[in-house]
Write a structure and sequence with these properties.
The chain is α/β, with parallel strands linked by helices. It has 10 helices and 6 strands, in the order αβαααααβααβαβαββ. Helices cover 37% and strands 9% of the residues. A 6-stranded parallel β-sheet has the order 3-2-1-4-5-6, with helices on both faces. Keywords: Hydrolase, Magnesium, Metal-binding.
């Protein structure tokens, strides 16, 4: 966990919120896992969470390189060919994406209370549109969305590029990173947020080893566990569900 005194001093200064998407707002990480397990099975290899942790949150091609190199199949399958094969399998899965617990409640609460919110995701536009197909109304509450194929995002997470780009695009002009709270599920995403000078709440998959939690300012089991008041944000109404 981050130093509590520096963390506490930030908690009253949060004015804007940035959300990651995959595994945080949408339950899409399971699709990637399923497809990657199928591909590796052909080579009599298994997909584990230590590899998953290295891939999560990165741009597609960066994650693909990690995948083929770490599993030792790069001589048989290039990163580019892996992405083509994976794409065919994912295309039918993404439109079925469901919201993670607490995502709708938190987004609607912040929007209702005038807290500017946006999404910063490593997903490129084609995948973003498939994944959010059933959730357009909820995602329309975001002030803006920064995608992995945005020209300003030169490097994927854990580089801070995507969060710095997101901070510049809020209505009213650039926002001081110290006033931004980022929600992430991936270690690379938390690293990107901290590199950008922002605070980070991590909502990791329970299968992710706790050694990856260290950089986050707060670690939660679910978005349902988030208490806005702890960060100086408007509290949930008592009746909110």
């Amino acid at each position: 966990m981050a130093n509590s005194s520096s963390c506490d001093s930030r908690k009253g200064s949060i004015t804007h919120v940035i959300f990651d998407m995959d595994g945080l707002l949408l339950d899409t990480e399971k699709f990637y896992t399923e497809v990657q397990e199928k591909i590796l099975a052909r080579y009599n290899k298994t997909f584990d969470w230590s590899l998953k942790a290295k891939m999560m949150g990165k741009k597609a091609i960066e994650a693909a390189r990690v995948f083929v190199e770490e599993t030792g199949i790069s001589d048989s399958l290039t990163a580019e060919d892996f992405l083509i094969e994976r794409e065919d399998m994912l295309r039918s899965m993404f439109p079925t994406s469901e919201l993670m617990p607490g995502a709708s409640r938190l987004i609607r609460h912040l929007h209702k209370n005038g807290i500017p919110i946006c999404v910063a995701t490593g997903s490129h536009r084609r995948h973003f549109e498939l994944k959010t197909q059933r959730h357009g109304e909820l995602f329309s509450l975001m002030q803006h969305v920064v995608l992995g194929d945005d020209p300003e995002v030169k490097q994927g997470k854990p580089s801070p590029d995507i969060f710095l780009a997101a901070a510049k695009r809020f209505e009213g002009g650039p926002v001081d990173p110290q006033n931004i709270l980022v929600f992430e599920d991936a270690p690379s995403g938390v690293g990107a947020a901290k590199s950008a000078g922002m605070s980070a709440v991590m909502v990791p998959d329970p299968r992710l080893d706790s050694s990856f939690h260290g950089a986050a300012d707060q670690v939660l089991g679910s978005l349902l566990d988030f208490n806005p008041s702890e960060w100086g944000l408007p509290p949930f109404e008592k009746s909110a569900t």
